[in-house]
Amino acid sequence: MSQALRTQLEAGVASLQLELTQTQIDLLMNFLDLLQKWNKVYNLTSVRDPQEMLTHHLLDSLAAVPALLRHVKTLPVEEGQRLPLLDVGSGGGLPGVVFAICCPQIDVSCVDTVGKKAAFIQQVAASLRLPNLHGIHDRVENLKTLYPVISCRAFASLLDFTTWSRKALAADGIWFAMKGKHPEEEIAALPADVKVFHVEPLQVPGLDVERCVVWLRAAA
Questions:
Q1: What is the mean pLDDT of residues 104-127?
Q2: Order of all β-strands in the sheet with 211-218
Q3: Which of 194, 160, 159, 205 minimizes the C-alpha distance to 65?
């Protein structure tokens, strides 16, 4: 079964035109194993079937990686430093862990109010030896660090997401919200000082569903 899943993962990575090494594919498969194993204890996701975990979680998260990488390449980063990214309410590490595996140049912090979910992220970071992955057990409103990119996936409305994480957004930072259908009503509900500057449709390999990334920034 795992070989079939790996083949499907590799096909998905190819269709997204992501240049991942075999080591990164190994890490994604190992993450899938950890998610299955710990889900029985921690209830990290309602999805139980490994095949569904692959399509609905792993490939769904991977679909956003090209868009993220395009943005990251436009940002100034000091030599030898990683770009900090905050993933809000990432639960079982989706998309945070996927971002950390696929983008070693990004330092990913996953914040969750549920202690066991933050502990799972720490477990993944240790098991997979990912120095650029961190689990934080806290409310995003309490964080003191500033991040140039703040992401979320199926976390909350755009209004709540941007309101709660506003204090953690660096000057000139952006929000990167992964959504299903184009969230017209959520966009309309945003205050005047939060601007949507791009809505990018995503195609998830092996999944016939609507997905998009909403890019936002705080207006001066």
A1: 94
A2: 133-137, 106-112, 83-88, 147-153, 169-179, 211-218, 194-202
A3: 205
